[in-house]
Amino acid sequence: MTDLQNTIEKAWEDRDLLKETATQNAIREVIEYIDKGRLRIAEPQGTSWEVNEWVKKAVVMYFPIQGMKTIEVGPFEFHDKMELKKNYAELGVRVVPHAIARYGAYVAPGVIMMPSYINIGAHVGSGTMVDTWATVGSCAQIGSNVHLSGGVGIGGVLEPLQAAPVIIEDNAFIGSRCIVVEGVRVEKEAVLGANVVLTASTKIIDVSGNEPIEYKGYVPSRSVVIPGTYTKSFPAGDYQVPCALIIGKRKESTDKKTSLNDALRDHSVAV
Fold first, then answer.
1. Residue 134: closest CA among 122, 110, 200, 262
2. E strand or H helix at 231, and its extent?
3. Residue ranges per domain, the chain?
4. Quick check: pTM over 0.90?
5. Tens-digit pLDDT profile for residues 193-228
6. Half-sphere exposure (CA, 13 Å, Cβ side) for 209?
7. For residues 91 and 128, what is the distance between their CA atoms, to the nearest angstrom?
8. pLDDT tens for residues 122-131?
9. What is the CATH number of domain 80-267?
10. Are 148 and 128 in contact (CB under 8 A)?
């Protein structure tokens, strides 16, 4: 991988190298590795995550070396630079019309894709449900047995270019119409109620104890989160600004579905 990484890094610094066949082949090799799950944009390292910047750079540079072409899918037609994933039966993935994943996204066996979209560079773990009209953005890292509910928006890193991908860890539940962007990390078994919006600057306030505890950029494991507001002063007066509130913890259980139901029932969270 060292030679491959060096080629990518050189091309990133000198875009004229993108005209060379060797560079293009190296970029396409990286995309193939991502597609098959052999490389990831980010990888868990103990309790943290390490971003493989050079892999992300290869994804960014894949776009300019690809030409536009017409892609026919039955009676439907697309005009784009990216191939679509194929051979879902061999991959062990259930794909409901009109679900689409781009080539260069890894979708593990056991994933269920309702009419939804998974962009290039993303990694979706086994047993995960990508529900109707949910979007998994470029390079996002979605764990195993995650539920992305209807209309969820998981941000990508490409437009505009972001430093880190969104990470949703194993067994998390992301409620309807939630938006998670700008490299936010949702840790294992967390529950986001409907309409929670998380950006890098969103205040995430734990109000379950005697004193509030504030986080930014990540949701601690097993947290149950709902939308909230706090008062902020502006020249024109005091106004309510959106935030996210941690109102409790999801109970530890070997039966994740039962644990989820308990969390929603105990805290009256809408999903």
1. 122
2. strand 223-234
3. 80-267
4. yes
5. 999 999 999 999 999 999 999 999 999 999 999 999
6. 8
7. 14
8. 999 999 999 9
9. 2.160.10.10
10. yes
